[in-house]
Amino acid sequence: MFAHEHVQEVQSLVVDLNTSLQAMNTLLALGDVLALDVSYPQNPVFTSSYYSIPWLGEWVVAADPTVRPNITAVAMPDFATNDTVNVMVNEFFFDTLGWALWYGNVLSLEEEMSTDVWKLAIPPLYKAYPDQNMTLGISLSQQANATISAANGIQLTMEFALDYDIDFANGTSTRALSLGMTVDFDAELALNDTADGISLVGRVSTFTAKASVLESNIGRVSTTLLNTALKTVISTIIKPKINSLLGAGILLPIPNERIASVNVQYEDGYQALGITFV
């Protein structure tokens, strides 16, 4: 949602604003795979002091934008801060992002390595296949979801599957181990000035992780040793992939003016980014 408080008479903006909204491409691309639907599900609100545009704020997979997740949006207030512009997002925004990341296989990764990398963390793997080439497959096993609260900000929960496939010289492979991993990320949104307009960017920062064994063909595997090693996988492989994607940003259809400051405010169920222009 976007809301703008202005000292001039707002009604004079109605015709031009409605025309530009109708002509606007309502799918804003994020990279080559994802897009944000900023069509408005109901009419903009115009008062004598401000106007409010209720964007849908639903993430889709760009190659198949007609497929939508079964997630319900919750209403937000028009304004949460006293700044000139409020850009507001709720859990629906992040939940549909989590669905699109899963449905679009955006975080499906394969890393080639040797089993000696896991010599200390997974001793049975190295014992069964010492110094053997392997591929670590990483993917989201279900759609991610988010919680926004006044106390803790944005927390994004992701469920990953990790598959350890042993690669043999003859070109065949066998699956030695499959793990499940729950990762709780702290997430952040920010607004950046660019030459083309104001961009909404995101990132994940601190996290906690917990592993579980889904299937093992190498005997008993200790998750106590695993949890420490998997934090390295998250920090060096998964987290940079997410931040590279979200850091690319999307240009928002709001006034292209210089930002003086952004006031970030969290409430239960939604976040407001209050903008003051230069």
What does this structure look like?
The protein is elongated, with a radius of gyration of 22 Å. It is built from 4 helices and 16 strands. 19% of the residues lie in helices and 44% in strands.
Task: Give the percentage of residues in beta strands.
Answer: 35-45%
Based on DSSP secondary structure assignment, what is the total number of beta strands?
Answer: 16
Largest sheet: 7 strands, antiparallel
Instruction: Please report the distance between the alpha carbons of the first and last residues.
Output: 22 Å
Mean pLDDT: 89
| SSE arrangement, N to C | EHEEEEEEHEHEEEEEHEEE
Indicate the radius of gyration in whole angstroms.
22 Å
Low-confidence stretches: 7-16
Overall body shape: elongated
- The total count of helices amounts to 4
| Class of secondary structure makeup | alpha+beta
Q: How much helicity do the residues have?
A: 10-25%
What is the strand and helix layout of this fold?
Blueprint lengths: L1 E4 L8 H10 L3 E4 L3 E4 L7 E2 L3 E4 L4 E4 L23 E6 H13 L5 E6 L8 H6 L4 E8 L4 E5 L3 E15 L5 E22 L2 E20 L6 H25 L2 E2 L7 E9 L2 E8 L1
Antiparallel strand pairs: 1-5, 1-7, 2-3, 3-6, 4-5, 7-16, 8-9, 9-11, 10-11, 11-12, 12-13, 13-14, 15-16
